[in-house]
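Side project, low priority. Logging it here so it doesn't get lost.
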Amino acid sequence: MILGIGVDVVHVRRIEHWLTVPGLPERFFHPEELSAARSRGNTLSLSLAARFAAKEAFGKALGTGLAGIKLRDIKVENTPYGRPDIVLAGTALDKFRAAGGGRILLSLTHERDNAIAMVVIEDDR
């Protein structure tokens, strides 16, 4: 059964600005997310915008928002086949379990100026 659905749009320019502020990306992204995005070269800000949209969409799908969740505890990674996946730890995992979450489905898309994420959370039944 679906516990919640969340959608978010992030303007790539917002992330481009964050990348100019020392230490700011490290507050919002897991080290592995930053490393993977940096390896993509000229799509760094686009990749991070999609990942940030996924984190925001996760909070909306959870129904609690992101209050009390460390954004670094929500890691967006790709499976070997390229499918995006959310991996939770710490505060994010605690809230997910408390809400009865069982499975997270994630879809990402982007174009030149915007990145969009949709998250569906199924319950643990």
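Brief comment: The mean pLDDT is 95.
Revisit when time allows.
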